[in-house]
Design brief:
The protein has 117 residues and is mostly beta strands. The protein has one helix and nine strands. Keywords: Hydrolase.
């Protein structure tokens, strides 16, 4: 146990260790960036990242990483659906992507359910 490293944010395990620029929890396998980078990010620009940590910008193409239910449609958006030309917004309830999904029309998505293509 290293006294200088924070516990795992997923399982609160105290046996975290450094692997390159990441911190790793041997108990659950969770990997994350150290807190100073996160604090600098919060203090600086409002950076919107996808589900795997890539920085998103206006006009990017993203892929939906998990199936999503859509009100008023018998089927939802399936995982793997590509969404082109996204626009980053400060939307309601954490929905920070404004886009047009083929077959569904204009909608807001959360950056946590997409991956940069």
């Amino acid at each position: 146990m290293n006294e200088n490293l924070p516990p795992c944010p997923e399982c609160a395990g105290v046996y975290t260790y450094e692997m390159g620029t990441l911190l790793v929890c041997p108990e659950c396998g969770h990997e994350w960036t150290p807190a100073p980078a996160e604090a600098a990010e919060e203090a600086g620009d409002n950076v919107i990242r996808d589900a795997v940590g890539n920085v998103l910008t206006d006009g990017d193409t993203v892929t939906v990483v998990k199936s999503l239910k859509v009100k008023g449609h018998p089927t939802g958006i399936k995982a793997g659906t590509k969404v082109r030309n996204i626009r980053l917004v400060d939307g309601p309830d954490g929905h920070d992507i404004d886009c047009k999904v083929d077959g569904f029309g204009q909608m807001h998505l959360k950056s946590s359910v997409v991956k940069k293509a």
